[in-house]
Amino acid sequence: MTRFGLLLAAIVGSGLHGPAVADSPNVIVFIADDMAVDDCGAYGHPKIRTPNIDALAKAGMTFTNAFLTTSSCSPSRCSILTGRYPHATGGHQLHLPLPSKQVTMAERLKADGYHTAAAGKWHLGQAAKKKFDTVRPKINTWLQTLKDRPRDKPFFMWFAFVDPHRPYRPGAIPRPHTAEDAVVPPFLPDVPETRKDLALYYDEIARMDGVIGRVLAELDDQGVADNTMVVFLSDNGRPFPRCKTTLYDSGIKTPLLVRFPGVVAPGSTCRSIVSSVDLAPTILDICKVRVPKTFQGRSFSPLLTSPSKTIRRYAYAEHNWHDFDDHGRSVHSVRFNYIRNYYTDIPGTPPADAVRSITYQAMRRLRDAGRLNDNQKGCFIKPRPREELYDVENDPFELQNLAEVDKYAPLLKQMRAALAEWEAETDDHVPKKRRADEFDRETGDRLKGGRRKIKRKAKKKKAAK
Q1: CA distances for 357 relative to 72, 347, 354, angstroms
Q2: Domains with residue ranges and CATH for the chain
Q3: Residue 454's pLDDT band (boundaries 50, 70, 90)?
């Protein structure tokens, strides 16, 4: 066994926790902004060019049943950093800042002698910046942040991308993807607008992949790659209808890759259920830093050496206000996804930027012309069913709701009980007062009295040089 394998064995086996030492492992977390699980070569996409993400998978472990606690940008990131479910962080709705009292893995690592840095998209509020030694809330700073680190300390880097978040513009990469490259899921109409939209989305994933490659090359140049745990995941699903902000797999299932030389076997696969709420306790566990009692996740470090083990039966996810009013919860096993819609009187409208997209506006025209099939109407249907149940093994796009099929009644009862138990354990409640929509559900235009001013002209996003 390598010295890092021995290190992990000591961490997991002995339960010893103490201050960081000279050979403590470094950690880099790459977090994509709105990327679906299937949208890279490592997870089987035939056209998106992601050689560096794919190389991470070949050199490390691919998790095939990793789930987010929510499909909403800032609430997801707050949840990952605190090891807590969104409703327990105080940052459960879009744009709510993380309260200063919340404990993050960054400050615990910092207190144990790690240099902690965040670079790229910052979506957590001002108070959370104090949790890190360095925060560079701009794009194109990932590489420099790694170069500028103190060389006498182990490091934790939170590298957050703005790709592939909307809006999209041509020219993101020198060799763009084409409409012919698009793989259109059955819940979206296969029309030119959708294909063009997906191709531009693919371009931003490829641009992000290039940055990841440059950061990994810098690790090699600094001679620290062999003692660095690299994690790649997304904060939520792709920003398309029936994806981002939903509790379907297209919203909450995330790519999760872990490269850790000498610990994780190259090209390995883990099919066990893990949640993004588990990442913070896992990283602290690996780094020999005591996991605080505030964390609600559980370490999946045993899976890194024994991927067939099980650390949890279910992954839990939630949907709260994000541009539009909503409240939903889900319980996910390896095979089934149970969804509870508490506000059945409203449709499952995607986020406002997706409503303004050429895909959604094409769907509106097709709907009005009676040309959407039943699988493509989900964003417009109301009332929604109170309960949904999907067999994701046989119905991966979650098109057939089994909640009212008699043979699944015992399973439905079991999932209801699991949800009720989790809600009680985590003190989760339906809000006493509902929050109004901020945008029009048909056009995406801001409603009168909306909180924030829309930036009509997006800043041009460039890759790090």
Answers
A1: 18, 18, 5
A2: 3-12+24-310 (3.40.720.10), 317-425 (3.30.1120)
A3: very low
